[in-house]
User: Fold these one by one.
Assistant:
Number 1:
Amino acid sequence: MSVAVPQTLNKALEPFLIIVGSLTVSMVLFGIFVASAGADPFEVYQTMYRAAFGTSFSWQNTLVRAAPLMLTALCTALPGYLGLIIIGGEGAVVMGGLFAAIVALTMPTAPPIVVLITMALAGMMAGGLWLMIGGALRHYRAVNETISSLLLNYIAIAILNHLVTSTFRDPESLNHPSTHHIGEANMIGVIPGTDLHWGLVFGIVACVIAWFLMHHTVFGFASRIAGGNVRAAQVAGLPVGRLILIICCVAGAAGGLAGMLEVAAIHGRANDTLNANYGYAGILVAFVARNNPLAIIPVAVLLGGIRASSGLLQRAHELPDATVLVMQGIIFLVILFSETLYGRFAKLQKQGAS
Amino acid sequence: MEVGWWGVLIAVLGGAIRIGTPFLFVSLGECLTEKSGRINLGLEGTLVMGAMTGYAVSLHSGSPWLGVLCAGLAGMVLGALHSWLCSFQRVNDIAVGIAMMLFGTGLAFFLGKPYIQPSAPRLPSIDLGGWSDVPQLKAALQINALFLIGIVVAVVLGWMLKNTAWGLKVRVVGESADAARALGLPVDRIRILSTAQGGFLAGIGGSYLSLYYPFNWSEGLSSGQGLMAVALVIFARWQPVGCLWVSLLWGGAAALGPSLQSVGVTGGYYIFNAIPYIMTLAVMIITCSPRRTLVGVPHELTVTR
């Protein structure tokens, strides 16, 4: 049967089958887990489905959580094309949110649209420059980018906490040190007809642009060559250093935009809620999507749905809210493990054909 | 007696030991793992799981030491799982580490829900400051036995890696998997054992958090000690005894902010907290170079390739 499948279709079929297979295996494992905790796995899955995708309200809940994940996933996915493993999304989100809030506070009289555009630019610039540090250290000093971006996360959080408790502190934020509110007029609105803020649109557009950039431009082509073989890229005269810096900057800008959206659409101020682990969850989204920006969109929605279902799971089955963390863990472990299966089916098919 | 600025120094020393002990255990665990050529970013999950297990077992059995042992065993299971998954082709150890971090913390929060309220028996401390009249000094010299055990482990581990056949095997596997295979060494098995033993140590580090300082079990117990293990080991140049000094330095830096507050220096609290991270980054920038690799690094390590 498989012999009849054309080569190109086969190529797309393999990841699809492997991912669907891993999701099934993880659902079985998680089912055993909740069953051992005394809940009926089938009812649990039904509840999760209802809570995540059952009604238009739950869809909104899911999509609100998916939007920042799309952007933070790009922080890891784009450098992945160059063979870099960057885990600094958290820091980019924090810096982006912080500087977006700070610039908004410097322009109290400007019209909201100007404020929002400036905030977005400031957030993207802050996040981009922040991750670019990791790329620059990698290229010029051979400092491992995974470790440096992890360290930069902690330094960014310290800078955020320092500034919101000193220079930019709103004296009225007693128990929860924050900057001043950017003003209700400057908050980003919702998509007409929904309760969803515009973050989702930004996330999807960013993923599509990133996909176009990496797969349909000379720049993306050069990056993929450099990611495949640095020496070959250098021999071909590609500016590897510049590629690293630009990609890290674009990746960080996506994270910074996520931070800006958290401030402009949800909190209205910068404080330590910016450090909500969207960066770390984004790493997993990128890995599961195998760094493909278009695949990031559904994976982020799936993860957003899992996260959105935690509340109802708690109420309906008396399962702790950490249940969804366990499920995420299981799914990701199985999917990462499934990486080893690629290519094995092709071998089977060849053997079957001969 | 007025202690003033001396009080800051004493508090930093005491903090170095008190806050540094969990760092010591996770970094020793990570050091052993990395010596065998794997990197385990999932020690954060191991640490939290160890903290929960230790607290729960101590509560049920009444023996905190049994809690420490079980915490280690829980860590060992997670370490073995990590390493088993990574022993398959093309499975990325960094990615699995992040997933293990999520899985370990999620599992610990799930299972640990009933243990947030009750109070478990605490690990006893050894009073080394009885000779002194200064209360601050007395408090600083209240040392937990786990710290002393940690020193012994660091010295013994360092000696064993250098001087025993077992240590040589671990190092060969970490330096070059091909060479190890040519010698007939079971590369995957050695790595799984090293990572599991590393997980054991990290689990003990977690039990210190829940059973001694800060002595409770809650979801906000760990502040990233497990994640930072990787940076600590780089700072320590993959030397177990180096891990001891670096952990003390780290603990001392974390204690600096609060102790300066006690003498009236309140600004920059968070910046002081970030000093260890800035120091690690600075050390990496100074010691790395595009023309040579780090001294002491196991060459199979994915982060250095």
Number 2:
Amino acid sequence: MKKQFVPFLAGLALLAACDPKAAEIVPVPEPAPTTGVFVLSEGRFGAGDGAVSIFDKASKTLNVDAFGSANGGAKLGDVVQSMGVQGNRGYIVVNASNKIEVVTLPDFKTAGTINGLDQPRYFTSTSATRGYVTEWRGPFTGYLPGVLSILDLSTNAVIRSVPVGRNPEQLLALGGKIYVPNSLDNTVTIVDEASAAVSSTVTLSDGPSSMVADKDGNVWVLCSGFVTYLSTPPFTATRVSNGALIRFSPNSPATQFKLTFPATGGPSKLRINPAKDQLYYAFGGAEYQMSTAATALPTTPFIRRSFSGFAIDPRDNTVFAAVAPSFSTNGRFIRYQATGVAIDSFEVKVGPNGFVFY
Amino acid sequence: MHFFNFGRAAWRRGLLWALLAGPGVAVGQQVPGPAAAPPDSARLSQRQHRLSEVQVRAVGPERFAVGSRRFELDSAVLAQYRGGNLADVLQARTPLILKNYGPGQLATIALRGTSAQHTAVLWNGLNIMLPTLGQNDFALLPVGTNTRVSIQPGPAAALYGSGAVGGAVLLNNDPDWRPGSRGSAQFDAGSFGLLGGSLEARTTTPTVAVRVAASYREAQNNYSYVLREARGPVRYTLQNAALRHQWSISPDVAWRVGTAGEVTAAAWLTDADREIQSGVNVAGSEARERDQSRRLVLGYRHLAARQQWAVRGAWFEDIINYRDRGTPSNSRVRTTQAQAEHTSALGARGSLRLGAEAQHFAALVGGYGSETITENRAAAFALLRYDPRPGLRLSANLRQAVLPAGLAPLTPTVGLEWDLLPAPIDTLTNSPTHQLTAKASAARSYRAPTLNERYWLPGGNPSLRPESGFGSEAGLRHRLSWGRRTTLETELTAFRQDVDDWVQWLPTAGTGIWSPRNLRQVRSQGLEASTALRRRQGHYTGSAQMAYHFTDTRKTQGSTADSDPVGVQLAFVPQHQASFATDHRWRDWLVSGTFVFTSFRYTSASGTDFLPGTGLLGATVGRTLHGPAGTSLLVLVQAANLLNQAYDSYPGRPAPPRTVGGSLRLSWN
């Protein structure tokens, strides 16, 4: 009677061979240096499946996990936050893994790991040996003032950490200074590159989170404003402070030109075009475009859609916009012409949040 | 010995007929009772209630779930896993789908491909699903607490109320009226810092039966795993995954009042302190969680020949305190429940149960703000069982719930069982005899929105509709016997389960605030096949059981706001699950083997990333040594993942390698 179990066991063996083919390890030829776009996907928190995909504009092909396929299937880590480029090196900031993975470009082969970080957010560099990364401190329920860590890129080590404000975000290196927006405060910390010390702290509006420099050498800071929620029914959200777009000259940061957003939302993700005369930001579920010469905020959106990442390709002004519908589904990126007309879209991993052009 | 009671295999034949086909099919039937209760493996779903000369059986709700599949974890199996939790035993022994974050970590069930919130868990007839989350963590339910664990997948479970869309898991402590005192104490130790112990003691007089079960468990879970990094494979030791302690104490007492009354009181107190394992790529998590549940139930039951009635009141308190470096996130929910039901005979062939229940929740949850949120729910039901002739059994039920946002969908259930080949009358022959039964059932079901879905700040959606399900199943049950010693029982069931208004949390356009909405339709369909061979001869009893489940669960329709693709197998629902288990007892020896196969499962809704298939082998060897004065010592050695397979139980959560454990159990009579 027990013989009838044999086909069952054979069936099990068959089923075991049924896993889908692992698609990610198939090597894809690296694109020519001038046609590659790196698409960053955070991945799902805890799953360790963040990735950088390489999109080749010429062939419209996508290598979904460039780091994994170049490094024997190694995982990049948990929450791929951002990436910076210095020469032929890429610096991938992996937030929840508390590290920066260093890769050679464009092949994405490992060139070391920068450890000793805590909640790293954004990277920039001023030379082949000098890098900077913003880091948060403290738990989400009570953040503490963060730091700007100064990195020796020849040894991939942290040289020192300069205290800044709470939740420092997208930093900007300009004219021998590092500008650090403290997104849980209302300040930008300015660190002097030569002395590696804070030279001044400028007060702006609540929630400065991203910054760019325009063609005239001015600094633009986007402040998101703050929101709190009523702790009793009906739990409505209350805007404590409105967002603001602020411009100042590096020579006189205290003298500021300020455009205030309506209370209907919080602006985010300030970007600038390659000519450095058009600003882009997200506000109220849409993307807006504004001239650096404008004296008022635009009222008509550039693209009426909410994006989790947005960038303009300096080589041809193509707009790349990321869509992360939820953290249970793969995301997409959409390419737009400089006029805002959609071209095409491609599926990437969960939670795409940014683009790097190389 | 037997670990599943597939259908009614283990029922004693005579009793089977008395119950199902006999003329006294109505409730409270009087059967001249044997002096002793049947052995564990033959424990009936109908409880034995011995009055002076006759037995009057309390009618369990399962009597009204005709035509559906139902299986029971045998007490002999529960005894083998007594130190573990319900997730451990279900994963080792059944082809049921559990989503598991690691040993002792959150483990939830996906019956027939539905979500964790679609399986109702009832303890002594009362829903113990956490009202905040609308689900249960099966790692927090120690096996030793309950004397009977049964699983009722599929539509017929709708008679258990909210949440029973995919099915229900029923935990019961039945009073044992065998006179005398007996008990056992057990000590467990195993790999990776596992230590535990448990105690069970009973004493019974003609009018009072008392039982106490208690258990303790801790585990370091400091096993090693290999992470593939850019510099090559690196071996790490798992961090922050310890089970610091897990207590469970459950006293219960049954007291006979007069000739027909029975008062029962039971408590179940659990307390677990766990480190919460984060994904292994997440650095430096220090998350801890304290889960405490206090459950008290008081009931009175009146059993007469032609009618029965029962009332029950219960009070639960569930505490979840979580912290990860920052300010703790605390929650405390108090649930008060009352139930009343009356069952009466309808002629000689039918019975009708009418009942009602009410629940009151008071939740003080950090995520809801600083005030206590209260909510009331109520339901009324009518359950009808009618057997027009001995070989044909029918049931039809109706349940209507009232929720704060209005009426839940009316949930009817119908079921049918028809003996195509009735059991032969002469059971003494040794030539093979066949018994074949066709069965079918269909039901509507619902799930009330959870407190989190309604009140979470921000995003809670008070206008959320209940999810509604429609399910049906049909199948065949075949039993082949060679005399009374050998049986082969096979069951084949095909099912389909549709869930509409499936709730999904998604970011709200504009604000980006995550909020639950009724967004999608999901269809789950599949096959469940099982076969069990049992043999008993002389000093030997043994069995071999195989089961295979095919589960195809896909979103069939969704709103535009819901980005998950249509037509892709849902994440964490493997299409193929199969289990094989074999148990053998000879004289004082016990040998068991288990193998569970799980096919690959997607880890996101997109159907691109997946966890590969696994095959897990386990084994148990035991020997009983007899001591003086009715004492005995059982020495048990148990191993899991014998093939030492390296796999992730969840993305970023490596599962334990091969583990070995031992138990010593001292029993007295």
Number 3:
Amino acid sequence: MAAVSLENWVERIRDPKIECMSKDEMAALQGKRLVDVVERAYNHVDFYHKKMKDAGVEPGDIKSIEDISKLPFTTKEDLRDHYPFGLLAIPMKDVARVQGTSGTTGKLTIAPYSQKDVEVWGECVARGLTMAGLTSEDIIHVCYGYGLFTGGMGLDYGAQALGATAIPMSAGNTKRQMMCMEDLGATAFACTPSYALYLAESLAEAGAVDRLKLKVGIHGAEPWTEEMRKKIESILHINCFDIYGLCEITGPGVAQDCIHKEGLHVHWDYFYPEVINPATQEMCKDAETGELVFTTLAKEAMPLIRYRTKDLTSIDHSTCKCGRTLPRISKFTGRTDDMKVIRGVNVFPTQVETALLSIGGAVAPHYMMIVDREDNMDVLTVMVEVDESMFSDEIRKLDALRNKIAAVLKNALGISVRVKLVEPKTIQRSEGKAVRVIDNRDL
Amino acid sequence: MGITIQQLSVFLENREGRLDEVLSVLAGNDINIVALSLADTAEYGMLRMIVSDPNRGKAVLKENGITSMLTDVVALRVPHETGSLSRAMHQIVEGDVNIEYMYAFANGEDASAVMKTDDPARVVDILRGSGFDVWEASEAYVSNIK
């Protein structure tokens, strides 16, 4: 147990030249890289050639980073239409590896990497690990899945670039995770926030927390709330950091927050972020929420230009207290995909999580939302686990708890909710991405 | 000498085979069920049991991923006579104590009524003061075993 307080925090910056670069110098670097990536895409990818022609733009029109707004957007549908290798900008023999999404919506989304792309990926994750205070002295227990999913490999490459020790646990088998975490002396661990919470609860239950050397948690791949972060931090006495990425762009390491936890620093020398209004496609001002759009400024294998992520966030270009000039994107409220319109009201799973955690210790933030349509009316059922401490043998008390949860959810979401209490530890803990919503409506 | 006995309570989701799972875990671990009550609502059930070893019962259920809790209850001994339960209840009501729930089981010569109340000590006082007796844990957990 080695809790870190902000008072004796020593900020480490892996690449101060880039991470603290002045806006003008950065814009010049980004402009140079944009010109290059647009040329490569136009000349080597038929899809981009045609798309730019249709939009009446030529590589010659792109001279600086400001010119990015002249370029057309790329969407997830475009990736799907060119599955698997239709957007490749290098010969297949130069593709070093392929990763993919967990494929929650059907077909896989494939992301090929050149050897240099892999190095950039590791470098960006290493910047994040350094941001979290880790050095080559650290032992990083990676319980993200290893496989097509980018989580395991991404953190592994990051640990390698940092010179730290990686323990490639992969996901699953919580008992073995706990044993290795203790025996091998992990100082940091990386996994999804929902699995982190499950692991933290299991460690606490086994009375193992005080025997750990853990000081840092690196968590991402699903949206999570500040309340969830505080819960994991308080159980394990560590600092948790939010890491963001998507496999199309590079996987984890596109952005991560620093100790000040006031937004996730985007490595914008490689991944240029824009936030747009998803309806009008106009640029949002700083602090305005919109859809995050990325252009990969250095990617060789599959460059993406103005790729619409469907993730909702806002951006802040001011210099952070940590000294970095890398812009910060706010913690995610969710993806446009996860958002459900229920009886005309926008509902995000993260809102449910926040509401449940606000009730206090009684309710575990493990939940499942089920949306049905009965007699042309949307019905939202939220399955909530009753914590062992609140479990009662009296039906009256359980009903009172259920009514209280329903009232808190109604207040938070603005629609009435059916609450179904379920047995503790019965909602599936995810080892990859937690499935929080089942929509049974035939829309 | 304890005046209350421990009841093993299990929250059951209404899904197929759940009760069977709980019972087979207990059976497989040689835990005898002396008395049982199953309350149900539209969404879930509450299984309440008096068993031969409540602590071990809770432990083996936990090992099998089933959450349960132990609750202190009073087990009233009522003679097999018409009106005896009514008389006991009358005394409790007069004494102004609330009974949360109750269930009964036969027990050789006597019958027994398990009661959950907010004030078990007072209930026992009232009952003993009016000529009734309660089971002690050591007797209740092994009753009906031949």
Number 4:
Amino acid sequence: MAIKAGSSDFLSNLGRVYGMYTGGFLAFVILIAVLEQMGVPNRILGYLFVFFTISVYAIIGIMSRTAQVSEYYVAGRSVPAFYNGMATGADWMSAASFVGMAGTLFLLGYDGLAWVLGWTGGFVLVSILIGPYLRKFGAYTVPDFLAFRYGGNVARGLGVLVLVACSFTYVTAQIYGTGIIASRFLGMPFELAVFAGLVGILVCSMLGGMRAVTWTQVAQYIVLIIAYLTPIIILSTKNYGIPIPELTYGQAIADITAREQQMIASGLATVANLKPHISPFINYTPLNFFAIILCMMVGTASLPHILMRYFTTPSVRAARQSVAWSLLFIFLLYFSAPAYAAFSKLEVYTNVIGRDLTAIRPWIFNWGELGLVKICGQNAASIDAIVAACKAIADHPGVVRLQDFIINTDVIVLSTPEIAGLPYVISGLVAAGGLAAALSTADGLLLAIANALSHDVYYKMIDPNAPTVRRLMVARVLLLIVAVVAAATAATKPGDILAMVGWAFSLAMAGNFPALVMGVWWKRATSTGAVCGIIAGFGLCLFYLVTTRYFPGAGVKYFGMTSLLNPITGAPLVDLAKAMALPNAMETWPTVAHPLVNKVGWFGLTNIACGMLGAPLGFAVIYVVSLLGKEPSKEMQAYVDDIRKPRGRTVLEEKTT
Amino acid sequence: MPESTDLKQREEAHWAKTSRLMLTHLGVWFFFGYVIHMFVVPLNKITIPILNFPLGFYMAAQGSLIVFVVMLFMFAKQQDKIDREFGFAEED
């Protein structure tokens, strides 16, 4: 009873609690700024930032620990729409969004906006088609709904399989991101940093389940959004006199376009190697551009760790409002990311490209030392280093040309404070924000996996009589095991974060979306139909992914796959006749360097968008198989009617003690 | 049982209206998510005055996103209104 009273006290004072927290965080940033002026070394400031923020998350996690089942799984269904929106924002925006998004836009220009569109528009589907209905149903997990609607443990098992497949792919990428940030700012070895980040994640999610994760995610959202917007607002004010970067970067884009022409005219770039920032369809074919948007959107509406956030609201109405708040909070970051890209690109095009080698601005060297910026093929660690590197190139004009310059995309956000000439405290702030983004997403994903394993597999399928204490114990132990396995996978550096995240979305789309949507919107959908549909859709997507990535030779030889197309010329990316004649053509499990990997497929469709094949097949199979079988029982149809009406009790009533 | 037929009718009318709202919003979503970006090349020839954004780029970077956010707040209101109209809304 004491806990209950304490928690309602907390809930009625949320505004004050988080207001004080935000004020405290800003005061802490100012304190660090003062310490910096007093001459405290940067390394120490970096440690202070990381340890202060992680301990605050840990304290929140410990304070909101719980031993109640409904608190553990759905935060007692008492999270107000506004705060659930913030928590979803943090849950959603990962290291890939915080650090990677701006870099992707820098590199791809217009085509990178496919990711921006895809990762925002999906919330429309969440609100209209699925989220509020699952809230009314009263599930603890997404497989819960599949099991109830499609009668039994086969559907539940498939739901768990899809959930684990997509969440695990996703969480590995997050822990990897945590490791990168921690190693860069604290100078830890990467492998150690991965496990250090893991401890931070576990403290938040282990003790209090959904309740603890929710309240830490709100705290993490506040840190990450302040960290993301601060440097770019300062930069915009400095360069254009207006503190709204989202408005002023239009001028930067106009300047970039003018500069691109100038660079070609003066021989600093060639038509072949310059990709104009605003030109569409030069990195992705139109088919793949729109396929990526669709897969990311539909994937959003199918990812269990996002859907389960809407199980925590007090009502169906609040669930709908909460989706709108979520997108607003996410939008704040996503519509600023293109500004980062534009400001950085303008800086590079005007102050790096075309400069005399001896007059390059010093921020380049900090990143060159880490091997993240290369000029003339060598790490740009100092003026002497780049002068020597460029001398080795025949006929080098002594100024940096576009083809001489290579930048790692992770640098874009992290280097902006230095480009703007801001003190180190802002860099530390950005690092803390990136860490918050990675930790919060990893928390949500690990919780989704552990809940599915403890609630769906252990409690519902293995031991339905398990007492509460044992269920929560199993949940915590599984959380620990999953986390350690994910960290071990991340420590092997499996590769490209953006592609891995894209695969997770496509898998979720193919596996979950048809069964969830038809479960709510079509009473006639039957258990057999859904089971066949999930197997067919998820199976096809997985087959396409695995074949094009790991068995591309077999794909070409046995399954009629052809080369993907070059978006500019429309010619095949690889000459299949030649590549298939090579001795390694049929190699299995090859590295990304293999000539066929990720470059073959059907209809010229990239494997990131494999959900485009799986989801339509899933819909078709559910439709046909359902019509072939007997109509679902009257009772089941009445339950579906119940789900559609917000009023009344939830369909599923769980034992809560 | 007149009461249960009444409920049945209300359920059906409620769902018909809900489905219509769903289709309208999906239409807007499809237009701003896909259709408008198919015309990016001609739209890029138009420049937004003062801000200097090419319109095609602007729509993908900000315009569509703003539409999505506004849409979701509107949808929450409209669906709630439908639920209330048929007496299926939760108590406040």
